[in-house]
Amino acid sequence: MKRIILSLAIIVFALGSFAQNIQGGIITVEGKSSVKLAPEDISFTVNFSVKSENYKECAEMSVEKMEEIKKLFIQNGIDEELIKTNSFSIREVQKYDPQLRQSVFEGYEANIPVTIRTKKDYEKNDKIFELIKDNLQSNFNLNFALSEEQMETVKEKLIQLAVEDAKQKATVIAKSAEVKLGKIKSIQYGEPRMIGPYNTNMELMRAESMPAMSAAKADITSVLSPDEIEMRTNIVIAWEI
């Protein structure tokens, strides 16, 4: 008799737990969003290097070269605040000696990229390109990127679209399952992320190719058409049912 009563108690407890799960059920849905933008920022980066057998002399030569490049742009009307130097490195250079059959010290090399970051509609972009190709015998690259203003604006839009997507999915699921959506129980948000290459339409040019380009027309920014950059995000929302 005790065994029968105990079995009945277990069944009643199990039914009670099942009823609680139904009453406290949730629908969890992931909303996704995607927005494509045409990049507004342009970066011209000159990559130069200097070498010397003496470490101090190498450092001094690199600073002089950097000032020389900045002066070139400033004297030609390029806004000084647009010119940036974000890194500087000096490394020891070794060369293999076939007679000694080992690497021997050759000197030091300093590498410094000087970047001019402008807007696509900056009226002096072609002038910057012209100054680089006519005066600087060094590697350089040009790339496009989203501006800070674009990133902030698209962030809000992505969230709105992701929430709408989650709501639409949850509504369809609830209708199909013949349940009613209740209050939102939780929200998890993912930061926007960039899809595809970070630098679109990169144009890399070597120093040896520059003399042949000196007579070319410098309308580079009107020729290049950067691809749109896609931004995505996701948001997970749980509703009570």
From TrEMBL:
<dbReference type="GO" id="GO:0006974">
    <property type="term" value="P:DNA damage response"/>
</dbReference>
<dbReference type="InterPro" id="IPR052022">
    <property type="entry name" value="26kDa_periplasmic_antigen"/>
</dbReference>
<dbReference type="InterPro" id="IPR007497">
    <property type="entry name" value="SIMPL/DUF541"/>
</dbReference>
<dbReference type="Pfam" id="PF04402">
    <property type="entry name" value="SIMPL"/>
</dbReference>
<feature type="signal peptide">
    <location>
        <begin position="1"/>
        <end position="19"/>
    </location>
</feature>
<keyword id="KW-0732">Signal</keyword>
<protein>
    <recommendedName>
        <fullName>SIMPL domain-containing protein</fullName>
    </recommendedName>
</protein>
